[in-house]
Amino acid sequence: MNPKLGSNPRTFKNNGLYLKLLYEIRIAQLKMIINSNYIFSFINLLFYRN
């Protein structure tokens, strides 16, 4: 058993919080990318409709 990998419950809890934070950041980045794609397509519709 690797003593560095979560044998201490405190570091294991901190790793869990870190992974949750990374997960939430990833979701926020995906939402921002999707929203910016919608905004760009909307701008393209406005410009190319005429």
From TrEMBL:
Highest taxon in the source lineage: Bacteria
Please list every transmembrane segment annotated in the UniProt record, as residue ranges: 27-48
Protein keywords: Membrane, Transmembrane, Transmembrane helix
What protein am I looking at? Uncharacterized protein
Q: Which organism is it from?
A: Gottfriedia solisilvae
What lineage does the source organism belong to?
Answer: Bacteria, Bacillati, Bacillota, Bacilli, Bacillales
